[in-house]
Amino acid sequence: PQQSLLEALSLISNDDWELKEKGLLSIKHLAESHSEVLRCSLREVCLAVTSEVTNLHLKVPHSAVVTLGKLFVTLKEDMDSEVDEVTRVLLQMVWNSPEFVQEAASQTLGIMVENVTPARAMTALMDSGVQ
Q1: pTM of the entire predicted model
Q2: Which of 1.25.10.10, 3.40.50.300, 1.10.357.10, 3.90.105.10 is the CATH number of 1-129?
Q3: Which residue range or ranges hold the CLASP N-terminal domain (predicted)?
């Protein structure tokens, strides 16, 4: 699993959008089957995934947003430390993206609220909404 994580992060950092998609899919699979591996590198994983939310190839942002949702579902309160940055990025997608990406971002925000500590979710939403 550790090797799979390193490969996934390498794919996400590639310039080829299809390889980025493959890397994001690998992160989703790791979240489902080996979430403990992601917990150890959570900051790095979240930075890699959130950096793809603004990718110009629309399949990549959609996949990144869905991957973030999977991370919230499987890692729950472990994602508390990443809520501020993820909320900021997701709200940008809700406000300024094609409809299918907006819908995915809205869904992921809902998933976030359901799975992290309520106070963290509320603070992040209020802080990001004010800016």
Answers
A1: 0.94
A2: 1.25.10.10
A3: 12-123
Instruction: Count the helix, strand and coil residues of the chain and give each as a percent rounded to the nearest 5.
Output: 85, 0, 15
> Would you say how long the chain is, in residues?
131
What string of pLDDT tens digits covers the 131 residues of the chain?
A: 999 999 999 999 999 999 999 999 999 999 999 999 999 999 999 999 999 999 999 899 999 999 999 999 999 999 999 999 999 999 999 988 999 999 999 999 999 999 999 999 999 999 987 55
